[in-house]
Amino acid sequence: MRYHESVKRIIETGINKTLLDLSWEETDFIVEHPSDLSRGDYSTNVAMLLSKELDRSSVDIAHEIKDKLEGSLEGVERVEVAGPGFINFYLSKEFFGKRLEEILGDTDTFGRRTLLKGEKKIIEYTDPNIFKEFHIGHVMSNTIGEAVSRLLEWNGAEVKRACYQGDTGMHVAQAMWALLKNNSHPTGELFKDAQTLGNAYVEGTKAVEVERDDIRALNKMIHEKADKKVNAMYEEWKKVSLQYFDYFYNILGTKFDYFFFESETGKVGKDIVEKNVGQIFEQSEGAVVFHAESYDPALHTRVFINSEGIPTYEAKELGLAKVKYDKYSYDQSIVVTGNEIKEYFKVILAAMKFVYPELREKTKHLPHGMMRLPTGKMSSRTGDVITANELLGEVKKSIADKGDTAQEEIAVGAIKYMILRQSIGNDIIFDIEKSVSTEGDSGVYLQYAYARATSLVEKASGVKVNLKSEEDTHEVEH
RNA sequence: GCCCCCGUAGCUCAAUGGAUAGAGCAGCUCUCUUCUAAGGAGUUGAUGUAGGUUCGAUUCCUGCCGGGGGCACCA
Q1: Which of A364, A395, A403 is nearest to A378 (CA)?
Q2: How far does the CA of A83 sit from the C1' of B42, in Å?
Q3: Is residue A339's beta carbon less than 7 angstroms from any atom in nucleic acid strand B?
Q4: CA A414 → C1' B25, Å?
Q5: Which has the closest alpha carbon to A46: A72, A77, A81, A6?
Q6: By three-state DSSP, how is residue A451 classified?
Q7: A417-to-A147, A197, A341, A408 alpha-carbon distances in Å
Q8: Across-strand partners of A32?
Q9: Model pLDDT, residue A380
Q10: Helices A212-224 and A228-252 sit at what angle, rounded to 10 degrees?
Q11: Which of residues 252-311 of A touch strand B (CB under 7 A)?
Q12: Does A39 contact strand B, using a CB cutoff of 7 Å?
């Protein structure tokens, strides 16, 4: 066990022992590290919690506990009572000295934990529709999913990265409709082809109101692989698109362990839904639906198999849970998606509770917000979405010339940091200027600070630590 | 209409029910006649609204106002 982990435990044990000595009841007190260091290196609220039960002033209780504890805790130099009854603990200089030497001697694994050792996690993220150009929503999902994966790994978990790619469904049919109409074929130039695909998606989406029946028929045709010409075009564009996505996964620094496709989960999902029609799912207007509201009034009915016998996203998602588990027997499955499917996902989880109760318990949905740009800053070529390529290009342009490779790395860092600097569920206003600022809260600043710190650590290896004052220890903690 | 999420400083964001609500930009005040003033040192400034629970509420509950998402064959 690490030295610093033990200090917190020593304090906790000390408090528990004191409560026992004074024959006071156990409570769920916390020992925390206050953000303001003048309030000690550790702090506890135990006295305030006891105040009500004992019907005594929390400050008096705090003093009583303080008197018992002071001088008896290893590594703790001073104990104080403050404010409404907080007990603050100040650690000794010797502690910080030892701890610093420990860190310097072990810079590679500093910060690693074993909290999740033995846990098997699978994280699904990015999840692009492959008949659409890679856009900023994918960048956001990818950044968050990759960060979560690394955090879990850092805490000792075994992590598998999964990407679930949409290769069937109405969205695909829309793009295919336009590609067929224009008789478009890949040219072999990756960026140009990606653009063609992106444009086809936009065109198809716009056409869907007028050409709904045609596109639905095409969807069925693709689903059943009924037409040779359609199959051929589908395959050639799918290949191109996957290449393009690989290119971006590489730039973003993600390496997936598994790729799942809607075309494979659809079949599994449809089977399981059909097997449960009459019990969990119901026939309704030619489709198979799940009436989630009869279990929870906050939920609503959703279609799992449409009236043409094609599984929808909902059924595919059920199938995916099983396909994933068959591949990797996870303890937890985390699904990173945009906020807009939050409500659907609740319905899916409600259905999963009946179909795969044990998998439902292991599944966690992690929805994130949208990335938006300040108005008018950047218009997308395609009109509707801003592509990853456009965003990366714009950010790169705003960085001082440092050579293409460095510039790209800095740009990726700037984008990722803007996404990760705030809480996951909220939308992000992406300000290019701010993202590449050389001062303040930006990825560029962070990378620069890291580079300098690394160089300092290199120079400092082997140094003996000798802290002279409390101000020194505060510097160290910061 | 119903269901979810969100409203914190001029802007973009923090704050496991705790102490004086923190940062970064921007602003303001100082600071260069010798090397990076694209710098340094200070400083102003906020919990949408009305209640409730609590020793204590940005945090939990209710109403209202404002923004976003969802509500049957798209994902």
Answers
A1: A395
A2: 29
A3: yes
A4: 16
A5: A81
A6: helix
A7: 10, 29, 24, 14
A8: A43
A9: 46
A10: 90
A11: 262, 284-287, 289, 297-298, 300-303, 306-308, 310
A12: yes
Q: Say what the ipTM of the complex is.
A: 0.87
Sorting pLDDT into bands at 50, 70 and 90, what band is A379? very low
A48-67 pLDDT, tens digit per residue, is 988 877 888 888 999 999 99
Provide the whole-model pTM. 0.89
**pLDDT, tens digit, 9 for 90 and up, residues A148-194:** 999 999 999 999 999 999 998 888 999 999 999 999 999 999 999 99
- The spacing between the Cα labelled CA in A51 and the C1' in B54, in angstroms, equals 13
Q: Which residues pair with A87 in a beta bridge?
A: A44, A81
Q: What tokens does A152 get?
A: 């879990």
Residue A2 CB neighbours (<10 A): 14
* Structure tokens, A416: 């990722």
Cβ < 7 Å from strand B, A residues 358-377: none
* Residue A332, number of CB atoms within 10 A of its CB: 16
DSSP letter at A110 equals T
Listed as ranges, the nucleotides of chain B within 7 A of a protein C-beta are 3-6, 12-16, 18-20, 22-25, 38-40, 54-55, 68-75
Closest nucleotide over all strands to A289 (CA to C1'): B72
Note the maximum CA span of chain A. 85
Among A94, A91, A110, smallest CA distance to A102 is for: A110
Cβ distance A49 to A19 under 8 Å? no
pLDDT in tens, A450-478: 777 777 766 665 566 666 555 555 655 54
| Residue A210 beta carbon within 7 A of nucleic strand B | no
